[in-house]
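EI: anyone free to look at a 178-residue chain?
SC: sure, send it
EI:
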Amino acid sequence: MNPKINAPISEQTQKYDGIIALSEVKFDKDNIELYGIDETNYFKGLTKSIKENGLYNPIVLYNDYECKSGHTRHKATRKNGYTHIPYILSTIDKPEDRYANMMALMMGNMGRPSSISRSFRQVELTCHAFKEKTGSEPTDAVVQLTICPAAQISWNMYSNLKELQLHRPDLFQRVIDS
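SC: here you go
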């Protein structure tokens, strides 16, 4: 590695295809819309881990340097004062429509920390993208069996929150904000 490149690489870093300046990485608008603000404790822990141990998993980029996976790792790397980051090139192309892209992003983040607010918003945004793609609202079965699991929220929780949103917006907002 070039000693002038400031990247969080250690002996723990997984195999990577290259190193890129943080400023050259493009961000996926769907990812930003789906995930919004990072979970505070997760971000602090990730930032600390990168500072102490280097970056374990390189970010994944499409051929045009748009980030497929690793938006938060990118931000934590920047926060630690690094200027470059290791990356892996994706072997698949970015999905062409928003619905497929949102589903891929959510499924790629399954198992990571989430919140009721984030998960509910993800279902709502993905339902909207489904409607943009197909011209019709997704059926309850699509929401229940496809979108909710990818957003890490149960159908029961989502449908109860939806009822609150429609009939008790004040209570809905308190639950979402909690």
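EI: The chain has eight helices and four strands.
SC: 👍
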